[in-house]
Design goal:
four-stranded antiparallel sheet; about 325 residues
Length: about 325
């Protein structure tokens, strides 16, 4: 019985020793920096910090007093801050929405632990400081400085612009310079007060408010409509010019064709007259017969059943009609 009790006690002791051993051992990862606190007070660290000074300041296996000393681990790598979209007023009294982001890291883990405790607390402080600095910088500049980042050549000629607001206005600093201002203004305070190094700050998205967007869309539609109407007017003018040239060329071609037709017809008539003259001028009877045929053609073309013709006795019409009448027996 005593032997069995001794075995149980020995097992409990071994179990406690194992728990104590595992509780006293901790591993410092290469991506972490560690502080050891005792009753809320920092007693050792930072271990594996950005500036590795002294002994036992590398990543690896370490020991602590179990249940008394507490291990606090902080990220050594770059961390992300993503701001909430905010409505801001520019210097020229226009409302816009800005969405920002930043990259930061912990450079003084002791100060960081004393001021914000952990990364969640740091995110809250970054929200307050970076959002405030972004508002201040945007409010101190006109809209063109916020939305543009580089100078570009004008793609539309000035004669095609609707108004002054449609022109591509020049700027002095631009969006990248404004982001750098936020970085310069907020960075030193964050480092000195919270042990945070602000590595980068950017405007992720900039958008107009609904009222401003509606006005911009209306102006864009009006400008595009005006340019489209101008193109249509130029097209109609070019079409009218082409039609005019076509009609003029058609009249020229028709006139030349009519002239050529009349010339050919005149030459043909001249040849026909020459042939008739040669045929009917061979004798007196031939000439009289030709004169008779032409007179008959004239009768046929000028007289009808309803016409009444009064002739003198000396006219050629009367002479041929009289000669063509049958003799009375």
């Amino acid at each position: 019985m005593l032997k069995q009790l001794s075995s149980i006690i020995l097992g409990i002791v071994i179990f406690i020793l194992i728990i104590i051993t595992f509780s006293s051992v901790y591993i410092v990862d290469e991506t972490k920096q560690v502080f050891i606190t005792q009753f809320g007070k920092i007693v050792r660290g930072p271990i594996n910090g950005p500036e590795k000074t002294g002994e036992n300041n590398e990543a690896g296996l370490y020991f602590r007093i179990p249940f008394i000393e507490k291990v606090h681990k902080f990220e050594k790598r770059y961390l992300e801050w993503d701001g909430d979209p905010n409505q801001v007023t520019t210097r020229d009294k226009l409302f816009i929405f800005i969405d920002t982001y930043a990259r930061w890291r912990i450079v003084d883990a002791k100060l960081f632990f004393e001021k914000v405790q952990d990364e969640r607390g740091a995110q809250g402080r970054l929200d307050d400081i970076l959002d405030g600095e972004a508002r201040i910088v945007v409010a101190a500049n006109n809209l063109v400085e916020v939305i543009r980042s580089r100078q570009r050549e004008v793609a539309v000629q000035e004669t095609e612009l609707l108004d002054d607001e449609s022109q591509l206005k020049p700027f002095e600093d631009g969006r990248s310079a404004l982001a750098q201002k936020v970085l310069d203004n907020a960075g030193p305070n964050l480092k000195s007060e919270f042990g945070i190094e602000l590595l980068d700050f950017r405007f992720k998205r900039i958008n107009y408010s609904q009222e401003v967007r509606s006005k911009i869309f209306e102006r864009m539609i009006s400008e595009r409509s005006r340019i489209a109407n101008k193109f249509r007017s130029e097209g109609d003018g070019e079409a009218a010019k082409i039609m005019g040239e076509q009609k003029r060329e058609l009249k020229t071609i028709t006139s030349k064709a009519y002239l050529q037709q009349q010339q050919i017809k005149g030459e043909a008539d001249a040849k026909a007259v020459a042939i008739y003259a040669e045929a009917f001028n061979q004798s007196t009877d031939a000439r009289d017969f030709y004169e008779f045929l032409k007179t008959m053609e004239t009768y046929e073309n000028t007289l009808s059943n309803k016409d009444t013709l009064i002739l003198s006795t000396g006219s050629d019409f009367f002479r041929f009609m009289k000669n063509s009448a049958p003799e009375n027996n």
